[in-house]
Write a structure and sequence with these properties.
two-stranded antiparallel sheet, about 80% helix
């Protein structure tokens, strides 16, 4: 009993020390201030924030396998599409509970990740990336071919329960709901980073042969990371399907989406907790602004913007924005006082 109490006390002390760090309590303050966004800005700006949260969940998920694990997947759109279509079809055509349908989508995506990961993780480098591209293209073809189920090229209109439709119309409630999911995704990323899974993935990224020599079952832990990434991406796909209420094979099983997830992590800082968050808040608003302002085929200029931004980042900040400006965090810790708590209080 005394050992257990001592362990619990030690964890509480470490948690309070972490909360007292300036960068941590200022981040929590920023989160509290973010709650005022729906009250201060137009519904269009709130809509952009919702898209940032949904895309951010996918980017954080990609960073688990691509950033922590060093496995450059370009197939995560497969899991997004499976989650989106599973939720949409089960809710619309079979009247299943939305929560249960999302759960089924997540499980199917994780199973797909295991099936894809077991053979492809024998490959390495560019070959793994090419293999995941082939999976995306294959799923796009299947979704288009089985149009009787997915709606094919005509698309699939999602019919959600009345209570959920009313909730999605209310932009303020929608903002808080998706912000909650986004914060949960960040917490999962933090947990993975400092867990046994995270340390093993980082070891595999740095030197797979050395990790294997030290007893790490590299293939197994890559599959674990890939499955977790798939489940989170499927959740993002389900949320997007519920929010926009329309799906198409070209949008759900899109190579562009897979590349976007990777670019967000690359520009923000691969393998860091903050990287996909920073990258998402930078890139999604740019994409939405360019697409909305220019529209049509000219809206594709956003991709040219991505390319230009990527070139600039490769030249001036190849390690990503989060790493490049990490000195800001150190400055904040020097300027602001550290808050101490007495755990016995």
């Amino acid at each position: 009993m005394s050992t257990s109490a001592s362990t619990t006390s030690g964890r509480v002390t470490r948690l309070l020390q972490t909360l007292g760090t300036p960068t941590v309590y200022l981040s929590l303050l920023a989160l509290v201030l973010a709650l005022a966004v729906p009250l201060l800005f137009s519904s269009y700006i709130v809509h952009i924030f919702v898209l940032v949260f949904i895309t951010g969940i996918g980017a954080i998920a990609w960073n688990i396998i691509g950033g922590y694990g060093g496995q450059f997947s370009l197939g995560n759109a497969v899991f997004y599409g499976i989650g989106a279509y599973t939720t949409a079809i089960l809710v619309t055509d079979h009247g299943m509970s939305i929560i249960l349908a999302i759960g089924v989508g997540i499980v199917l995506s994780m199973l797909a990740a295991v099936l894809v990961g077991l053979p492809t993780f024998t490959l390495s480098g560019h070959y793994f990336a090419l293999a995941t591209i082939a999976v995306v293209e294959g799923m796009f073809f299947l979704a288009d071919y089985f149009g009787g189920i997915t709606g094919g090229s005509q698309g699939f209109t999602v019919t959600t329960p009345p209570w959920l439709s009313k909730l999605m119309i209310d932009k303020t409630l929608t903002f808080y709901l998706f912000l909650t999911f986004f914060v949960l995704a960040i917490l999962i990323s933090v947990w993975v980073r400092y867990s046994k899974l995270g340390y093993y993935l980082l070891a595999i990224r740095e030197d797979q042969d050395a990790a294997s020599a030290l007893g790490v079952n590299t293939r197994r832990y890559k599959v674990y990371g890939f499955a977790l990434s798939a489940g989170m991406t499927a959740f993002a796909g389900s949320m997007h399907a519920v929010y926009v209420t329309f799906l198409s094979p070209g949008g759900a099983f899109s190579l562009d989406l897979s590349i976007l997830y990777a670019l967000i992590a690359l520009i923000g800082g691969m393998g860091t907790i903050a990287g996909p968050i920073v990258g998402t808040f930078l890139m999604v608003p740019i994409q939405q602004y360019v697409t909305t302002s220019l529209g049509g085929s000219i809206g594709a200029l956003s991709y040219m913007g991505y390319g230009a931004l990527l070139i600039v980042m490769i030249i001036y900040a190849p390690e990503g924005i989060a790493n490049r400006f990490s000195f800001v965090g150190r400055k904040i810790n020097q300027i602001f006082p550290e808050v101490t708590f007495d755990a016995e209080d």
